[in-house]
Amino acid sequence: MGKSYGLIEITGVVAAMDALDIMCKAADVTLSTWERKLGGRLVTIIVEGEVAAVTAAVEAARTQALKPLAAFGVIANPHEEIVGLVERSASRFKDSEPSDESYLQEV
């Protein structure tokens, strides 16, 4: 099976981190990217993995998160445009992460 995406939208950064923790513990998924809107009052988390794992992760967040989800969904076998959109979002974080070398130079 190929890559699938699980998406949740929830209010608040703390609730989003809690929901991500729930998702990662519930199934074999990894964080693809996340987006904050309205100053962090609305957070979208996107995880990836096999369809069954992503579905289980989204369901776990839906039923166990600190707050009700504003929206959620699973995209099995996403179109290449969706994959590109998620990769562009994720690249913002990869480009801004300090490398080990730059960290060592700061210390």
Number of beta strands: 4
Instruction: State the helix count.
Output: 4
- What is the makeup of the main sheet? 4 strands, antiparallel
Strand content: 25-35%
Q: Give the helix/strand class.
A: alpha+beta
Poorly predicted sequence stretches spanning 5 or more consecutive residues = 102-107
Helix content: 40-55%
Q: How many separate structural domains?
A: 1
Please, what is the average pLDDT?
Answer: 88
Distance between the termini: 44 Å
CATH class: Alpha Beta
Query: Going across the major beta sheet, what is the strand order?
Result: 2-3-1-4
Looking at the structure, the CATH topology is Alpha-Beta Plaits
The CATH superfamily title: BMC (bacterial microcompartment) domain
Any chance you could write out the topology, listing elements then pairs?
Layout: E1 4-11, H1 13-26, E2 30-37, E3 42-49, H2 51-64, E4 71-76, H3 80-96, H4 100-106
Antiparallel strand pairs: 1-3, 1-4, 2-3
Helix pairs in contact: 1-2
What is shown here, in short?
It contains four helices and four strands. It has 107 residues and is an alpha+beta fold.
